Amino acid sequence: MKSILGMKKSLQISLCFRGSPRVFSTAAQQRSTGDECGPEDPHDEPKHPLSDCAIKHKAIKLEEQVRDLTERYRKALADSENVRRRTQKFVEDAKLFGIQSFCRDLVEVADILEKTTESAAEEAEPSNPNPTLKKIYEGLSLIEAKLQSVFAKHGLQKMNPVGGKYDPYDHEIVCHVPAEGMQPGTIALVTQDGYKLHGRTIRHALVGVAVESQE
Q: Which among 57, 62, 176, 204 would be 20 to 30 A from 183, CA to CA?
């Protein structure tokens, strides 16, 4: 009985040794096969340099882009300069003509003062011995002169169109008068003074233009 058990053990041991080389050989083969089929090194990929034609084509495109950007920059710079000039002109005009509405109202006061001074001058004739009227006239004359001086200081000037040519931008015709010793088309009289603020007409002069008399 013991001999039979000893024979079984020796048989099992021999079978184990016979199968192990196959396991070891299979693992070795798998390692060798895995090494051979492993991922390739990306640095070993073949490089494909650009051809001369492709390089020239790319350089031409870059030059076109540079020219386009340069042109856009110049246009933007010109537009910016135009905006700056317009803004500067707007600011200057605002400074010069910001009092335009005020001046329009003020010249009406000047009209009243002028008519009052003329009336006082008629009353203060040498034939009238009243000294009070003479003083009033002198005072009104000083006020009128000072007002015109202030007007001139701020660029507001009265027009003197009598004897000059009619200009629709400065004058408004209210009547026609016979051209007695005057050339037809010239201004013979003024019914209301016109004013300019820094060369810009803010109120047209109401004038009478000389025309040829029809016999």
A: 204
Q: Tokens for 105? A: 């109202």
Q: What is the pLDDT of residues 128-153, one digit of tens each?
A: 667 888 888 889 999 999 999 999 99
Residue-wise DSSP of 27-55: HHHHHHHHHHTSPPPGGGSPP-PPPHHHH
CB 173 within 8 A of CB 153: no
Rounded distance, CA 188 to CA 178, Å?
Answer: 9
Between β-strands 195-197 and 187-192, what pairing exists: parallel, antiparallel or unpaired? unpaired
Looking at residue 185, its amino acid is G
Residue 167 tokens read as 């200009």
Query: In this structure, which amino acid lies at residue 19?
Result: G
Distance (Å, rounded) from C-alpha 150 to C-alpha 130?
Answer: 31
Q: What is the pLDDT of residue 122?
A: 81
Beta carbons of 173 and 208 less than 8 angstroms apart? yes
The answer to whether the pTM exceeds 0.90 is no
In whole angstroms, give the CA distance from residue 104 to residue 204. Answer: 11
pLDDT tens, position by position, 63-74: 999 999 999 999
Dihedrals φ, ψ of 37, to 5°?
-95, 15
